[in-house]
Specification:
The protein is an all-alpha fold. The chain has one domain. Helix content is 81%, strand content 0%. It contains nine helices and no strands. It has helices spanning 3-10, 13-21, 28-37, 42-57, 64-88, 95-131, 135-155, 160-163, 168-203. Helix 3 (28-37) packs antiparallel against helix 9. The protein is elongated.
């Protein structure tokens, strides 16, 4: 069974109408600008906003609070923990004493990255159901850019020079996802208006 069939079976037309009933259209060009100046980090804010809507009709959608925790709060907490550990821990002269702190640092970022990517995957699958597109494809495109940010955090900003071009993918993907939502919202608005006019004509 393909993804489109799953979407049609999972969401009724009434559920989609409910999702788009009071949906606020956003300008993809403006989102593209935000993505550029934030080096792709605006996707956290965008996902949180859309996620709150997805929760209204999709019981399998990730919790919007989960986005704030795994994409913002947890990385910041771990960043400051690592920072203060490196600041107040005396670096040893032998190889083992230097290796263990680095392993702990990388392991922590690895766990955070795994949790973050699991959230993004769940979000994209739910998004795909609403827009009747491939959630897996959206996830892969966003992941390519997220991969660059992960390596930058773990290995240092100098590594960003070699991977920054991966940010092109989410910078393009998020505005494209917004445009997909706009198209669907406009379509449902027209269908609702058409149904209303047809009803009024029959009534008169």
């Amino acid at each position: 069974m393909n993804n489109l069939d799953e979407n049609k079976e999972y969401f009724s037309k009434d559920s989609l109408k409910y999702f788009f009933f009071d949906y606020k259209l956003r300008n993809p060009a403006l989102i593209f600008f935000y993505m550029i100046i934030s080096l792709g980090l605006y996707f956290v804010t965008w996902m949180y906003q859309i996620n709150k809507k997805l929760e209204e009709i999709d019981e399998k959608a990730p919790a919007s609070n989960r986005a704030a925790f795994v994409l913002v709060i947890l990385p910041l907490i771990w960043y400051f923990i690592v920072y203060f550990l490196e600041l107040y821990t005396t670096t040893g002269t032998n190889f083992l004493s230097n290796l263990i702190p680095q392993m702990v640092k990388v392991f922590g970022w690895g766990i955070i990255s795994f949790l973050s990517l699991m959230y993004v995957y769940d979000f994209c699958i739910s998004f795909g159901k609403v827009t009747q597109t491939s959630g897996v494809l959206w996830y892969i495109v966003i992941y390519l850019g997220y991969f660059s940010l992960i390596l930058t955090i773990i290995l240092g900003f100098h590594f960003f020079v070699y991977t920054f071009y991966f940010l092109f993918f989410p910078i393009i993907a998020i505005p494209a996802m917004q445009e997909m939502l706009n198209v669907r919202a406009t379509r449902f608005t027209k269908e609702t208006q058409k149904s209303y006019f047809n009803y009024m004509e029959r009534k008169n």
